[in-house]
Amino acid sequence: MNDLVTHVRSQHLFSPGETVVVAVSGGADSVALLDILTRLDDERLDLVVAHLNHCLRGAESDGDEKFVSDLATRYHLPFVAIRVDVASFAIAEGFSLEDAGRQARYAFFHEVARRRGATSIAVAHHLDDQAETVLIRLLRGAGGTGLSAMAASGDNLIKRPLLQISRAELEHYLKSRGLSWRTDSTNADTAILRNSIRHELIPTLRKYNPRISERLAATAEILAADEELLAHLTGSAFDRLARVDNDKVIFGIEALLKEHRGLRLRLYRHGLHELRGDLMRIALTHLDAIDRLARSSRPNASLKLPGALRVERCYDRLSFTCAAPPVAQRWEHVVTGEGSHLLPNGMTLTVRLVPPPQDPATGSQKLAYLSAEGAPFPWLVRPFTPGDRFTPLGMTGSQKVKELFINEKLPLHERSRVPLVFSAGEIVWVAGVRLGERGRVTPATGAVLRVEILEITP
To answer: Could you read off the pLDDT of 378-430 as tens digits, one per residue?
Structure first.
């Protein structure tokens, strides 16, 4: 079954020598994913196996964790696991169990990636998952963005190498390789929407088209290509029609109304996403309400949206804002050495020389280790300025800090609060967000600086 290995390799999702966190639940799809990635000899990937125990099925969940741990040992790979009481988390946050589990998993995978310096997170979504996702979103109501479902290379490091491979093909692959897997007993519970679609709706649809899953996945792929083009056009139109000023997104109404309604709605979505970092609870009704406000004959009016968002019309301007603390003033602070440094924005940066840690990963975004040689004093600390660039830890090319904020879904109004730490003119730490490559701590590093930022959140 080298065909699957060849197929994954042909997508060029991973760079040679890249560190990749592999999300392994113990199910057939993730076990197959791990085995395939270990067989990418040319890529020589540095794999880390990550498993989240949802604590939902008692001994069965613990058995899954041990199975994955043993699997990692068999492949001689590092294993990282965490236990999360997903049921309690769902109740506390008002999520469904499925949504709570998803949020907990991805938060964990990204934390492992950060600690290990990984540049990809491989997850085992396959063709049948894609088909189910299309149907779920269709039933809930979605446009092209939602119906394009999942991408092979998604946001925030996520890679999905198996999207064009069916569940049946993966199980056949495992059997041919003599590999076993775990079966989640809750997968048969049709009270869960995804399971109901898998076991009831899709078998019914197969009566009309035996290859319904393939057709749905192909539809998602076509829509994804369309969405990529539309996102590019929207971004260009946003740069032309909007400006960002003091944590506001502002459109000129006269120019805005010359655009087609479909583009206007996308521009509203783009503006709201710039402000808050996501579009949770924003529906077509809200976008229509914004458009009515833009087209209204009233010179002054406003509209409140979910998530503390507000849209205001003032004569010829349409302004989007998000309730937030006052905008941080421009400032600079020089750090000449160890000690506790009170920054002009009210935060405190502590710096002290420590012995090289066994594991430079801290588990906290507010705490980091820097090489004293790679990041020599004096340091300049200041807020983000548009155009700032740096080389993120584990990468070779530079990236705009703005792109980092977008990838991390950091809302616009919070970006001015994030201190940037410069050494010799280069960013060594986007405090609380990402380390730079310049200050990397390696086994050969001598003097190490422990840096911590306090009160990073508003």
So the answer is: 999 999 888 899 988 877 778 889 888 877 767 666 788 899 999 999 999 99
Measured CA to CA, the distance from residue 343 to residue 331 in angstroms comes to 9
Residue ranges of the domains in the chain?
Answer: 2-216, 246-322, 333-454
C-alpha distance from residue 157 to each of 5, 114, 332 (Å) = 21, 10, 32
153 is in an annotated binding site: no
CATH H-level, domain 2-216: superfamily: HUPs (3.40.50.620)
30 marked ligand binding residue: yes
Over residues 253-304, the pLDDT tens digits come to: 999 999 999 999 999 999 999 888 778 788 889 999 999 999 998 888 889 9
Q: 245, exposed or middle or buried, with CB in 10 Å at 0-12, 13-18, 19+?
A: exposed
**CATH level 2 (architecture), domain 333-454:** 3-Layer(bba) Sandwich (3.50)
Q: In 3D, which of 410, 404, 374, 406 has the Cα closest to residue 390?
A: 404
Class of domain 246-322: alpha beta
Beta bridge partners of 296: none
Partner residues linked to 421 by β-bridges: 381, 429
Predicted structure pTM score = 0.67
What's the chain's Rg over C-alpha atoms? 24
**Is residue 26 a known part of a binding site?**
yes
